[in-house]
UniProtKB/TrEMBL annotation:
Its cofactor is Zn(2+). A zinc finger (C4-type) spans 32-54. Residues 293-341 have a biased composition (Low complexity). PANTHER family: ACETYL-COENZYME A CARBOXYLASE CARBOXYL TRANSFERASE SUBUNIT BETA, CHLOROPLASTIC (PTHR42995:SF5). This is Acetyl-coenzyme A carboxylase carboxyl transferase subunit beta. NCBIfam families: accD. Residues 28-297 form the CoA carboxyltransferase N-terminal domain. Its EC number is 2.1.3.15. Component of the acetyl coenzyme A carboxylase (ACC) complex. Biotin carboxylase (BC) catalyzes the carboxylation of biotin on its carrier protein (BCCP) and then the CO(2) group is transferred by the transcarboxylase to acetyl-CoA to form malonyl-CoA. Belongs to the AccD/PCCB family. Zn(2+) binds at residues 32, 35, 51, 54. GO terms for cellular component: acetate CoA-transferase complex. It comes from Allofranklinella schreckenbergeri. Its main location: cytoplasm.
């Protein structure tokens, strides 16, 4: 026993400790899993759950993502009336309805997918977003049905469709019903592609299992967030099955980009602008800057004749996402920009002199 314990009664020390403990609310601080920096949670949420020190992209809820992604006005939810049922009376260590009730209580959602219509920088879109905290974002019959209704709403309005994936795959508790959602979602996306409307797939951490094996890579534009885990089976399962050591960074977004499996990696805080700019190209709309603030008209200057050097320079200076979007637009619409015709020398109308 120290001299301080002898002077101050232990009951007063315990009382002071309890008072200090109660003064700090639960969940006020968060620790970055990458750099282990202690972050003030309110500041972290304002930064869309991206660590300001090491740029690590932590997981973010579906509603928080949709609130940050879509324009504030004109949002409406799609398919929220569809709710899950225990068709198979499935039971593992716990009954399926009990798991659904617990997931709903912790997240405030009825299932793992939220679909919304709205605008992105004024461009009408339909967006679907997975909620990973609801049973690991697993895809069951309700997720598949809401996904189909969202795509059908985009088809009806002839607007682009965007999906943010964050899932462990098909839902085990629904058996074959969950596996059928892979075919169901692919079928409606095939109808969507026939109408030549753009589908943007954004792969976030994690995108695994039946979702990655079905529609996750079917987008006209496939975007990944930095260091997102993307694949079918996990790395540990593959290593134990194949009995090989996988390369460093295997199944991460950067590894997939180097192999051509994704088109680009975009910081979460820049997704609004990057996707809006690409959709403007894919739908032949005015760019977001032109749509919000039209340029002041100026006097027309004489057009310059393009040459090969200037064309090569402009192509090299184009942003990577714009080049990808232009290629996707050609694939969607079947139309490409006509090549510039060489200038013809003027012909004289007077007869030649003898």
């Amino acid at each position: 026993m120290s001299w301080l314990d002898k002077i101050i009664p232990s009951r007063l020390i315990r009382s002071a400790e309890n008072t200090a403990r109660h003064q700090i609310p639960e969940g006020l601080w968060s620790k970055c899993p990458e750099c282990e920096t202690v972050l003030y949670r309110a500041d972290l949420e304002k930064n869309l759950n991206v660590c300001p020190h090491c740029n690590a992209h932590q997981r973010i809820g579906a509603r928080a993502r949709l609130a940050a992604f879509l324009d504030e006005a004109g949002r409406y939810e799609i398919g929220q009336e569809v709710t899950p049922t225990d068709a198979l009376k499935f039971k593992d260590s716990r009954k399926y309805p009990e798991r659904l009730k617990e997931a709903g209580k912790s997240t405030g959602e009825t299932d793992a997918l939220i679909a919304m219509g709205g605008t992105l920088h004024g461009l009408p879109v339909v967006v679907a977003c997975f909620e990973f905290d609801f049973m690991g974002g697993s895809m069951g019959s309700v997720v598949g049905e809401r996904f189909v209704r969202a795509v059908q709403a985009a088809l009806q309005k002839k607007v682009p469709f965007i999906c943010f994936t964050a899932t462990g795959g098909a839902r085990m508790q629904e058996g074959l019903l969950s596996l059928m959602q892979m075919a169901k979602t692919n079928a409606v996306l095939a109808q969507f592609a026939q109408q030549r409307l753009p589908f943007v797939s954004v792969l976030t951490d994690p995108t695994m299992g039946g979702v990655s094996a079905s529609f996750a890579f079917m987008g006209d534009l496939v975007i990944a967030e930095p260091k997102a885990l993307i694949g079918f089976a996990g790395p540990r399962v593959i290593e134990s099955t194949v009995r090989v050591t996988l390369p460093e960074g295997f199944q991460r977004a950067e590894f997939l980009l180097s192999k051509g499996a994704v088109d680009m990696i975009v910081d979460r805080r820049q997704l609004r602008e990057v996707i809006a700019r690409n959709l403007a190209i894919l739908t032949h709309q005015a760019s977001i800057g032109q749509a919000e603030s039209p340029a002041t008209p100026v006097a027309e200057a004489a057009p310059a004749v393009p040459d090969a050097a200037s064309n090569a320079t402009s192509t090299a200076e184009a942003a990577p996402e714009e080049v990808i979007a232009a290629a996707s637009a050609t694939a969607i619409t079947g139309e490409a920009a006509a090549p510039a015709q060489p200038a013809q020398p003027p012909q004289s109308s007077s007869p030649p002199q003898p």
